[in-house]
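Study this pair:
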Amino acid sequence: MTRFMRLTRVATVAMLVISTTARADIAIVINDASSIRQISHSEAVNIFMGRYRRLPNDSVALPIDQAPLKARFYKALVQKDMAEINSYWARLVFSGRASPPQQAGTYEDLVDIVTHNNNALGYVDATQMPAHMHVLLTLSE
């Protein structure tokens, strides 16, 4: 192997390491006016996977998916890719047992929904924490 090839491989590996560590955590957020201050990982899984729709204070939960982060979120939450998540929801919707979280097309849409509803919870890149929101749980990728 030539020296150039070794340097190229080292540079490629270094760039991969940097790109995977550069990703920020994902924060599950709720309106700051909500009385809920934290949720467990299992509660987050149950809410976002449609197993139950109640917050710890027994109020109705309104989970919101954010399109740009959806794949990263579900990978961090339940270690599943979007094909698996879509298949899961197709089975639940077809059987009539549950409906998927409401969809927010953009970060701004998610902020608007969560800002105007104390029971709505969504997720954001932890580096983009919106005003008037409280972090319930942080997921590492």
In short: The first strand starts at residue 26 and ends at 31. Helices lie at 3-21, 41-48, 70-78, 82-95, 107-115. The mean pLDDT is 88.
